[in-house]
Amino acid sequence: EVQLVESGGGVVRPGGSLRLSCAASGFTFEEYGMSWVRQTPGKGLEWVSGINWNGGSADYADSVKGRFTISRDNAKNSLYLQMNSLRAEDTALYFCARALSRYYFYYMDVWGKGTTVSVSS
Amino acid sequence: DIVLTQSPGTLSLSPGESATLSCRASQSATNRYLAWYQQKPGQAPRLLIFGASRRVTGIPDRFSGSGSGADFTLTISSLEPEDFAVYYCQQYGSSPPTLGQGTKVEIK
Question: Using a CB-CB distance cutoff of 8 angstroms, which residues of chain B are in contact with residue A113?
Fold first, then answer.
């Protein structure tokens, strides 16, 4: 079964850091671009960051550029999101999603259930 | 970045009625690289349509996508109870990929 499972969410103070992980299974992880997409409570979806199949190229939403870093370990079938200098507006449910391409800027056909990040003092 | 504007924000309809959802891009979506997702409360989004009009395997044919350039439409021909949800469009013609703010289809 094709599956993505996120972990690493939690409660953190403003200015703090968190590292999200996404474990992939059921498909050849190294052949696909991957993205993180977040959803704030009661609001819509926001694409956060994406990375190509080999980690050679990545991009970020303006709202997180310079604070978040995406990475992947194809040997471990895992995607990561290092989040630094967290702000209250980063509070959201973070989804990991597979792009049906080697490139992250493609449509996303497999999604995890998400992990919740709460930034609060 | 390409901004996607979805309208209306909310659509109140009865089962059996037809729904027409709009997605307008601030720039032309290259090669019709436009997808539609459905999201129900407490669930992850589900891909319905890609390439503006290509239905994902297993998606009922009452869902159809159309459009090109900067204007796209998702049509649900006869609403079933399970279709009441929030729908998002996404462009993937250029980086960063962007999503619309969503249209909620609610039961009237």
Answer: 44
Q: Report CB contact under 8 Å: B88, A45.
A: yes
The DSSP string of A1-44 is --EEEEE--EEE-TT--EEEEEEEESS-GGGS-EEEEEE-TTS-
- Token pair for B32: 């019709």
What's the CA gap between B30 and A26, in Å, rounded? Answer: 31
Question: Each residue of A50-91: pLDDT tens digit?
Answer: 999 999 999 999 999 999 999 999 999 999 999 999 999 999
Q: Determine contact: B22 vs chain A, CB below 8 A.
A: no
CB contact under 8 A, A112 and B44: yes
Q: Check CB contact under 8 Å for A35 and B46.
A: no
Handedness of CA A9, A50, B43, A25 (dihedral sign): negative
Per-residue pLDDT reduced to its tens digit, B10-65: 999 999 999 999 999 998 766 799 999 999 999 999 999 999 999 999 999 999 99
